[in-house]
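Reopening closed ticket. The problem is back. First fold of the pair:
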Amino acid sequence: MSQVDAPILSVSELNHQARQLLERGFGDCWVEGELSGISRPASGHVYFTLKDARAQLRCALFRNRGRFVSAPLKDGDQVRLRGRVSIFEPRGDYQLIVEAVQAAGAGELLAAFERLKQQLGQEGVFANARPLPFPPRRLIVITSPSGAAIRDVLAVLTARWPLSQVEVMPVPVQGAEAAPAMIRALALLNRETRFDPDRDAVLITRGGGSLEDLWAFNDEHLARAIFHSRLSVIAAVGHETDSSLAEFAADARAPTPSAAAERLVPDQQELRARLTQLRSRLVRSQRGRLEGDTQRLDHLRMRLRHPGEELARQRRHLGQLESRLERAIQGRLALQRQRAAYARQHLLHFDPARQVAAARRQSSLLNQRLHAAWERRIQRERTRLGYLARALQAVSPLAVLGRGYAIIENRQGQVVKRARDTQPGETLRARLGEGRLLLEVKRRYRE
């Protein structure tokens, strides 16, 4: 192709094609290095440089991914970044779009996972152990409607137990909105259970992925929502080697979505085999019982006597019982006659009329004695009251006042005994034999 025929690209077109080539060629990758030149503009994004001893790389951590980074980024930190290589087209800058950040070594996400796991374990959030209904009347699956997990669950349920009633509550299972969406779904199910009691089990699940992809299932609020759920919850997140806080908080956990479905419902093939075995045992048991009953019937047939003989025997027995009954009735009548005669004599001896007359005489005598005692008691009390009245009159201060004496009190109600206890101009009260006086001190005298 000549230079005249070669396509002529603008700068923006060139940068756009270069970005597409880089993103398709590299995909996701991990890069380790040292942080430098961290910048945090008002947008909430974080821009920095990742460098090692011989090169450096511009990086951008956007706000929607930055919320999953628990520890703040600092210059000089040695970190491991997961992201995709791209170009910022307006400036033509080659950069790494960061999706996850781990501290070099054990990893920041793993450290955060262990901290949350220890905290929630101490709070008792992992203490759920309610038995799961088997099989559930109606299973609610909280997962992505387009993920591989729901396909695996439905395939296992259909193969093992076609009678399963399954309801899918679609939620995102990755990203910032995943945990809040699952929490809302659980809350809605627990509220609606009062009106739909057939719902009795919840499966929270998703397929495998990286630690960052599964991080929504390590949300502490989601773990608490699972712990407080009134419905039984089973969780199956990722592969067999993956673990999450949601699984620890659930009533049961399974290594994979398929294993969870297998745990929830019986296998129809096993049940068919079991039914076949039970049917064979039932047939053998019925055959053996029928043979035994046949033998007993033959034995009873041989022991069976003619009805006339049995009727004669019963007639003789009935005659014997009739004779015994007649003798017993005669003896009982004689005994009752003796008891009636004894009771008649006893009643005559204890005539109620005589007892009533004696009681009346005793009552009249006691009444007379009571009146006499009452009169004597009143007379004694009158005499004693007169004596006490005379004694009280003798010592009463009112009697002294009646002879011309007076009691002087100050304004506080205290009795004045000495002239020096008063002051000229002071107002006093005098209590006489009849009435009171209000006095004013003019002068004090000494005797």
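Second fold of the pair, where the issue appears:
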Amino acid sequence: MTALPGWALSDYTADDVTHPTYRKGEGSGVIVIHEIPGITPQLLAFAEEVVEQGHTVVMPHLFGTPNAKVGPRSMAQAARQICISREFLRMATGTTTPVAIWLRALARDLHAELGGPGVGAVGMCFTGGYALAMLADAPIAAPVLAQPSAPFAVTPGRGRDLGLSPADLDAVKQKVSAGCEVLGLRYRNDLAVGSRFDTLRNELGENFIAVEFPGGKHSTLTLHRQQEGVDRVLAFFKEKLAG
């Protein structure tokens, strides 16, 4: 597995599933879940900023090659890995992705180790909804959904789906009703997001905080980085995770 300078590499296993993780920092925990094609230099730069703010960051490596640049080769490699893995759901609606079970266990163990009000989690693009799925059954206190794009919005029904089973959606709504806020980021004309922000507003009400930017770009925190978006996420973690 590729080493990342300054980051501690280890494996985490839950329910007989193992993925490598990279860890750095001190303070409350934040799980940064990479988008396609993987832990890119831009994703790594964002994670470093979260560390610098005073958090322990854990980055799971789910697919791709760590620190590979975004390009046709890295995108194709990640797509192949996703397509053959049963951990990831790409098209199904009304269903929680299986990898959420592993991510929830990671969050529970990180919180048990570090304490505090809970763990932060940010998913992006293909993994954008994972932070919401984790909220259903893990101590997530600061969930961030950056341009959530799964299931792929090839039909209107898939474009509005949140990637949650009915039971998990009910659990999320209960936590949100109890006061947990959910932060979402997107470019308004990003077709990959579909109409999920409308669904999030309808299901979560005023505790869904939408940060939207003009245009049709995609990766709000990485490749098409919006500094305002990064600042909002960092402020969200600071506010929600202060113990």
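Update: turned out to be a display glitch only; the data is intact. The helical segments are 41-52, 72-84, 99-114, 130-135, 156-160, 166-177, 196-204, 227-241. The CA atoms of residues 25 and 51 lie 5 Å apart. Please close again.
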